[in-house]
Amino acid sequence: MMYLLNDEERRALLGGNREGALTAEGPSSPVTTQPRAFKQRELEALKKIVKRTAENLLKPEELSFPSHGPVSPLTNVKLTEILSRPGPTHEDSALMSSAVAQMSESIKAFKIDTPKDLILPLTLPQ
């Protein structure tokens, strides 16, 4: 003898009505309130985290490190000044050029012709 389940029993066994599941009355209405509410809560939580992080990044705080002493705080003005720069300044370019020149002089002084010659002495134990 076979026992047919009614809709309530079927839902209880399946753990709830699934989207697009067929019932005796036809296609059931999908249950979307819980997933949508969860996504909304998750989105709100993420927005709060982003806002709190941005506020903490932009808030000037006194920082001090024992070895270096006090460090100047990063203020909103300084941050916007850094972000508004189109690219490296002339000072930055000059420092980079100087560093490249010093490195190339060092490579010539040690008579290094290829990067392989530079890497092998650094990796092999002496």
Mean pLDDT: 61
- Strand % is 5-15%
Tell me the number of helical segments per DSSP (H or I, 4 or more residues long).
Answer: 5
H/E topology pattern: HEEHEEHHH
Number of domains: 1
Number of E strands: 4
| Helicity, as a percent range | 55-70%
Structural class: mainly alpha
Key attributes of the depicted protein:
126 residues; mainly alpha; two-stranded antiparallel sheet; 8% strand; elongated
Structure description:
- The protein has 126 residues and is mainly alpha-helical.
- The chain has one domain (7-109).
- The protein has five helices and four strands.
- The chain has helices spanning 7-14, 33-58, 76-84, 90-109, 115-123; strands spanning 22-23, 26-27, 63-65, 69-71.
- The strands form two sheets. A two-stranded antiparallel ribbon has the order 1-2.
- Strand 1 (22-23) and strand 2 (26-27) form a beta hairpin.
- The longest helix is centred in the middle third of the chain and has 26 residues, at 33-58.
- The protein is elongated and about 85 Å long.
- It starts with 6 loop residues before the first helix and ends with a helix.
Summarize the structure.
Residues 14-35 are annotated as: Disordered. This protein is mainly alpha-helical and 126 residues long. The protein has one domain (7-109).
Strands, helices and their partners?
Elements: H1 7-14, E1 22-23, E2 26-27, H2 33-58, E3 63-65, E4 69-71, H3 76-84, H4 90-109, H5 115-123
Antiparallel strand pairs: 1-2, 3-4
